[in-house]
Amino acid sequence: MEHTEKRTDRRVVKTKKAIRNAFAKLLSEKELDKITMKDIAEEANINRKTLYNYYGGIYQLVDEIGDEVISAFDEAMRDVDFRRAMSEPSTFFRRLTEILLRDMEFYGHLLSMSGNVSLANKIADTVKLKARQAVMNQLNVDEGVVDVAVDYSVTGMMTVYKSWFNSGRKMSIEELSEIVRQICIYGVSSVLGD
User: How far is the CA of 41 from the CAs of 22, 35, 38, 93, in angstroms?
Assistant: First the structure.
């Protein structure tokens, strides 16, 4: 009996991943309001009935994807000691890199969204809020300064990763993350030289 449940769970996970990746790919190609459930089903290579077994509509899928991404980044920030991260941020950036590596296809499509700013903004705003809360809970810093630092860092990182996904990935994700880490901690001059 347990064996059957595990097999079913794997099929569910596999199907939902196919749906999620298909939707993210479609988001990278066209506007959200131009995507239909039929488009998603065709791209995921499943029938529409299967798709409707999991999602009542596009916006339910949008919400779930947004929640998944936010949860993954929340997980990366959880347990980060920001006092220590200020002097040695490698752990935090390693966690972010691990998140992207778990599902490069999905994040590649998601970060390639052209006009779908509402989902990207929701993700960015929530990540900024979580980062702000984590920093404010651990460091005694002026709120205005934290807001500027978090906005600059999160927006900058998202832009850099988006550009990397859209530019043919000429360097490894690890190399890119190291450059972003250096810039966030030591400034642009740290990577450009004297």
Answer: 8, 11, 5, 35
Orientation of helix 90-102 relative to helix 58-77, angle to 10°: 150
Per residue in 49-92, pLDDT (tens digit) is 999 999 999 889 888 887 887 787 777 777 667 666 665 556 66
**For the chain, what is the domain count?**
1
Taking the C-alpha atoms of residue 183 and residue 149, their distance in angstroms, rounded to an integer, is 12
Express as a percent the part of the chain with pLDDT over 70.
82
CATH (domain of 62): 1.10.357.10
pLDDT in tens, 104-126: 777 777 776 655 556 677 777 87
> Which residue range is the domain that position 157 belongs to?
2-192
List the one residue out of 70, 111, 91 whose CA is nearest residue 185.
91
